[in-house]
Amino acid sequence: MPDGFSAGDTAFVFICAALVMLMTPGLAFFYGGMVRVKSTLNMLVMSFISLAIVTVLWVLYGYTLAFGPDAGAGLIGNLDYLGMRGIDLNALTGTIPVTGFAAFQLMFAIITPALISGAIADRAKFAAWSLFVALWVTVVYFPVAHWVFFFDGGNGGWLGDRNGVIDFAGGTAVHINAGAAGLALALVLGKRIGFKKDPMRPHNLPLVMLGSGLLWFGWFGFNAGSALAANGVAGMAFVNTQVATAAAVLGWLAYEKIKHGAFTTLGAASGAVAGLVAITPACGSVSPLGSIAIGLIAGALCAAAISLKYKFGFDDSLDVVGVHLVGGIVGSLLIGLFATGHVGQTASGLFYGGGLGQLGKQALGVAVVLVYSFVLSWLLGQAIQKTIGFRVSEDVEVSGIDQAEHAESAYDFTAVGASLARTPAVPAAVPAEKTEVDAR
Amino acid sequence: MKLITAVIKPHRLDEVKDALQAFGVHGLTVTEANGYGRQRGHTEVYRGAEYTVDLVPKVRIEILVDDEDAEQLIDVVVKAARTGKIGDGKVWSIPVETAVRVRTGERGPDAL
Question: Which residue on chain A is closest to B46 by alpha carbon?
């Protein structure tokens, strides 16, 4: 390998990439447990399909649009690596092979659209959703990743490299991006039948806990891996991730106990995700004490924010806005207050003698990504709605999307009447069994 | 003949079963049931949204008895099922025209 290559860093980033990959099935369970029985599978597979679609698009043109050399003004990458051709096996990004960096970044591109699906639970056509994922990563995620994550000595992305917006592991590119898109789609598709009237209780909280646990686990890859090296910054990002998440669980539960009188399991799981979201942009620039503050604030604020949908009457089914958009904004802005100036990045926040400069930059990043993602997502959603239709029929929605869209059901509750159910045709190869059944 | 139906708290089922056995009842049918009386149900909270769950889990017991045993049997069930707290349940009886033991074809009180 060439000079500068580090086997340790490379091994670390590959493992982190695999950890981040696991977050998407984790997210599927986190969301899947929160919906009603009749749409469990649809919720799971809406995340899973992102693994398939985005991976293929990443190779075809995603990697080059996001991380190819800048095509101008820091807005988008050029087409040098179309089909991921022309990438030398020995080429490095920092101290790791380009392929390792590309694999790591691919996992971010996969989970971001999957996050959006929670906003439109129970009511989206699967084909329309799949099309949305493909279009959305193309016109929203790939460019925004370029703006935020592509560094090239001042010739990289216009937000991160040129304007100094700090987003260590994806507060703007991943969470605000997905949260704003979730809000847009919730508005395009409209409310679920029975929203605010029928109980839409989570059908399986243990699944939600399993999912949030997997997310928490994988998030170490997400955040620590974003150092792209097995070094001190990765170590600090790792610690901050753990600390902020723990504090956010406490913040969310405290808010709930005061406001609603109970410490709920769903609250603990949601608080963890809110903390993970909020520390994502900040974990490379704040101290563990700052992380406690960010976690507590994010936990309590996100717990308060989820009631917005009832107040404003939009049906963001699984609180993508309340958790990811609000959590992402909290984390991104608080960098402007809590950045120490010596953890990983050199910019200092207000509380560490840095003045208001960094806060202003963070606000710019938040506003730009929020507006860009919301507007384009809304337009894409409308275009799909007007052409192939985005929302399932009323009949399908009431009877359950799993059977209509996937011809399956998540659980078999048949007890009485199992023998009356239509059995598959017995293959000719096993006539003995058929005779036995007939004899009975 | 009478059909005695009791809807009781699930955790009192064992006591009621024992009391019925001591009284000499040979058979009974138990089903899981849901319902509410004056106390209504309970409230659950999910991400700040409160849901009132009206239906509380109960157990429903059905016993076929001779007319002369009916009143006494009701007392036995009530005594065994009572905790004194709200939600203890209800017991009622209705007349039964006929009963047949499927195995032998015996009818009426002989079938019990």
Answer: A266
Token digits for A42?
A: 């649809």
Nearest CA in chain A to B53: A199
Could you please report the per-residue DSSP string of A202-217?
-S-HHHHHHHHHHHHH
Q: Which residue in chain B has the smallest CA separation from A197? A: B51
Model's pTM, two decimal places? 0.87
Task: Report CA dihedral (A115, A119, A120, A121) to the nearest 10 degrees.
Answer: 80
Which residue, among A220, A236, A333, A353, has the nearest Cα to A287 in the 3D structure?
A236
Average pLDDT of adjacent 10-residue blocks, chain A of 440 residues: 93 98 98 97 98 98 97 95 93 96 98 98 97 98 98 94 95 98 98 89 97 98 97 97 98 96 96 98 96 98 94 95 97 96 86 93 97 98 98 94 94 68 58 47
How far is A122 from chain B, CA to nearest CA, in Å?
Answer: 17
- For residue A266, list chain B residues with Cβ-Cβ distance below 8 A: 46-47
Does A167 contact chain B (CB < 8 Å)? no
- B47, B50, B51 ranked by CB distance to A306: nearest: B47
What count of CB pairs under 8 Å joins A to B?
28
> What is the predicted ipTM?
0.74
By the 8 A CB rule, do A366 and A329 touch? Answer: yes
